[in-house]
Description:
- This protein is 28% helix and 29% strand.
- It is α+β, with helices and mostly antiparallel strands.
- Strands 11, 12, 17, 18, 19, 20, 23, 24, 25 and 26 form a 10-stranded mixed beta sheet that branches. Strands 5-4-7-2-10-13 form a 6-stranded antiparallel beta sheet, with no helix packed on it.
- The longest helix is centred in the middle third of the chain and has 21 residues, at 441-461.
- The protein is globular.
Amino acid sequence: MKRIIGKWICHPEDNRETRLAPVFRRKFTVKNGLKSATLRLTAHGIYEAELNGKSVTDHKFMPGLTSYYYRIQVQEYDVTEFLTEGRNLLSVNVGDGWWRWNNNFGYTLALWGELTLTFADGSTEVIATDENFEVGIGPIVKTDLQMGETYDARIEPQGWQQAVVCVEHTEGELIDNQSVPIREKERFSGKPMRDNSGSLVIDFGQNIAGYIRMTLRNTTSGQVVHLKHGEGLDKEGNFSTANCDGGKTRFQEITYICQGGEVEEYAPHFAVFGFRYVLVEGIEDADFEAIAVYSDMEEVGDFRCSNELINKLVENARWSQKGNFLDVPVDCPTRERNAWTGDAMIYCRTAAYFMDVKQFFKKWLKDQTIEQYASGKVGITFPSTSSVHNPEELKEVQTVNPAMALAGPSGDGNIGEDSVGWGDSAVWIPYQMYLMYGDREFLESQYETAKKWVEFSLRCMKEKNPMYAKKPWYVNGDGDYIYDTRFHYGEWNEPLPPAPEVVELFMNGGTSADFVTHMAKYGKPEVATAYTKRSCDNLAHMAHILGKSEDAEHYAALSKKIRTAYDKYLIGDDGVIQKGHQAAYIRALALNMVSEEKKPLVIEQLKCELKDADYHLNTGFLSTVYLLPTLCDYGMIDEAFKVLEQTTSPGWLHPITIGATTMLERWDGLDTYRDSFNHYSFGAVCQFLFEYVAGIRPTFNAPGFEEFELKPMIGGSLTWAEGTYKTKHGLIRSRWEKKGSNVSYSCEIPENTVACLTLPDGKSQFLTSGTYDFVL
């Protein structure tokens, strides 16, 4: 960062009670001979900036979300064209953003900035945020990222007074911007309708994250227009947010108070919503346009085939990625809006097939490193969205010391942050990003974070669980290699009935906290042991790539010991692992937990599980991504396509048959009207479509697709399929089509790359750049 001159400034009356949305302004004069002008800005909150009435950028929700306790991004703009000789005006609005959402980081919004003017004679002038700025209140009466915005168009900025230096602060370092710009993207015209209650509802036809731009006609001064955003119509055909509002009384709402006139236009400044439908009150003569807003990453991949439901599945997954990748990868754009590690771990490779996510993940992972606990645990969400102090504690402390620096995560996290799968994101995401992009920085910058997490898991593995004291792994002295302690989310949202003891717990008045405690008591040895072994494998390979030979040998040896113990104690001699759970068998095979002797037995058990489920899946969050690839890897291609193409629940295509336009959090979400309708995790099936059906596969031999495999797979009802993927070297294309008794195959190989092509007949050959056609 450059030398810092500016001060953090705020409105003197902004606090946790008033929750103002301040407008800062600075009048200044530009002398003759201006050569260039650079504006650098950031905020506690999110900001919009204008020079002489013109916006300085099309970026939204700056400065983005980082771990504000430790680092706050600064954006830099070339604003030469906005300035004129003589009088000029800089104006900046600041809204709550992530800073004050649920009081995550603090209570006072603040601005920091520097405008540097460079003149032809070599002189410079810096106009920095200080007490020479004025601050007032404009038409934004209330603003909250999730709850929404109240805007009074009758109000002009007023109440100007001297800005003051802000005493509420973190120790966050000002850093250059690392975020992918957030922009307004696709736009959708709405279709007005009446729900069954008679209310006016606008259907935009696509579930998105974004907001509404409305054009109102023939309004009167003081007329109130109210919008509420939601994802669906309930079972009675009425607009409802019951699936995603978490019981909040105010949720995803806009209140607009009209100035009055023939035409008024408005779009929110500091709020973003997850929605397909909007409930409208207070106006009839209006037009509504939905605008998708997300991190503006280049779209690089696509998959198409003869089954239109699968094509819609691909489209839905891509829309869920767009709807949840807004500076950080959140789980859903409605209820929680937290950047859950498990969701991103499952989906990150699929994300890279749809969009260029390299910088997006690189920026996000740095906050995981920064916030890692001393024990090696990592947050289940990050950046952390809860201060070390709860609101009442913070108020009490700041009453005594108003200048107290807000502190970041401390202690050893919560019980959920023990969980494998979620914590293993510290290893898996950089490992997969290296594979997809060939960028060693992912491994170099994240290796120690990954190692600390693995060491934490290995220490937990050595803990003794009295519930299993008589289990053979303890009796035989192998307890250090079976991870049977701690709480683990495991196969979250597995579409199976809850265990009887869990039902009993809640029937007896148990709470969610009681459930977590109960689950921690029993552990999940089949899950935790397997994922710790996988992370040892990944870490060993990362160490090998980075030339850390001792670490590579150490973690590879641990992996072998864990695998041996797992195979010996957690897989029965008949191949049974966990009756009724496909995930148990998929996990064991996909993560290489099974000895060659037991493998045929495990495969047979898996076949029985599939048949018993009538070829419907019953895997949860962690294993679903492995389901279809594992079936194909072990010769069950027909079974894989049967599961893929199921149109009844549970399955990927069922929600599409009843109108889903994004991925659901639950397989039966639309049927039961429960939970988020925009949750990208189960969209990870698209990795299978790219890598197996189209056959485009990266390789660690030359990551970043300098070398890659083409191994298309024909199956199910499909008569043709095509995948395209734009790498840094150029476009890869892979297409096959059934033509009578023959199959034609064509592919395109970019310059300076090599592909190993394996056709369905088993024949392999190496191809260099060019276009190729084959007939089988």
